[in-house]
C-alpha cells in the first residue's frame, strides 16, 4: 500500500489496527507493536502533509478532521500537541492549529544542519563504498528520474527522500541518523513550500549523479564537500537568494565537483 493509499484508507474510515497478532514463524519473544491512538492519528497527519493533502499554512479544522479519521477530538488534540512539539504544527491561542510554514531563518538553519549531516555521512560512505552499494544508489536515482518525468510529484519526493535517508543509514552512525530524522519533517515542509523541486527534475537528477560520482571517487574529503555544497546551493536556488557570505566557500566547492563530473562524463568515465 502506498502512502497516499494508506492515508486515503484512513480518511475513508478503514479501521486502524493497534498492534497485530503474531504470524506463523514469528519469534516467540517478539511482541506486536503497541501504539496509542494519538500516535496513529499523528502519523496520519504527517502522511497527509507528505502527500500534499495538508499544506504549509493550512488550518487544521478539528471537527472535520476528527470525523474523517473516525476519532474523537481528544486524541486528535493530543496528536496535534505532539506534532507541535516536533515543529510540524503551530497552535495559535484562540485561533486553532495550523500546518507550520517555515520562516526563512528556520529553513536556513535546517538546511545548514542537513548539509553538514549528509556531508559527514558521505565522508563515511565514500571510505567504505562497495560496488553493490553504489549500484543501489544509482538505481534509486534512475527510478527517481523516471518517476519525476512521469509527473507523480508525491512518489518523486518520496524517492528523493529515501535516497538521502539511505545515505545516512549506510553511514552506520546511529546518532547521525537520529539527528537527520529529527529534522526530516522540516525538510518536507521546505520541499512542499517550494514546488520548484518538482519542476526541476533534470537539475535534481544531475545533482544526484554528481553526488554519486563524488562517492565513487572514494575520496572522503571530496564526497563530504560535494554533498554539503550541493544541498546548500540547491536550497538557496529554491529561495531565489544570493548565497550568504558564511556559506560562500562551502557552495563554491560544488564548482570543483561539477568540473570533475563533466570531465568524467566527457571521457566516458561516468
Largest sheet: 3 strands, antiparallel
Extract low-pLDDT stretches: 5-25
Order of helices and strands: HHEHHEEHHHHHHHHH
Question: What's the CATH architecture name of the largest domain?
Answer: Up-down Bundle
Give the tally of structural domains: 2
Alpha plus pi helix count: 13
Going across the major beta sheet, what is the strand order? 1-3-2
Would you give the CATH topology of the largest domain?
A: Four Helix Bundle (Hemerythrin (Met), subunit A)
Round the mean pLDDT to the nearest integer and report it. Answer: 84
Taking Cα atoms only, what radius of gyration do you get, to the nearest Å? Answer: 20 Å
Share in helix? 55-70%
Strand percentage: under 5%
User: What is the overall silhouette?
Assistant: globular
CATH superfamily of the largest domain: GntR ligand-binding domain-like
Characterize the structure shown:
The chain is mostly helical. It folds into two domains: 76 residues, Winged helix-like DNA-binding domain superfamily/Winged helix DNA-binding domain (Arc Repressor Mutant, subunit A); 163 residues, GntR ligand-binding domain-like (Four Helix Bundle (Hemerythrin (Met), subunit A), Up-down Bundle), CATH 1.20.120. The chain has 13 helices and three strands. The protein has a three-stranded antiparallel beta sheet. Strand 2 and strand 3 form a beta hairpin. Helix 6 runs antiparallel to helix 11 and helix 12 packs across helix 13. The two termini are 36 Å apart. The relative contact order is 0.10.
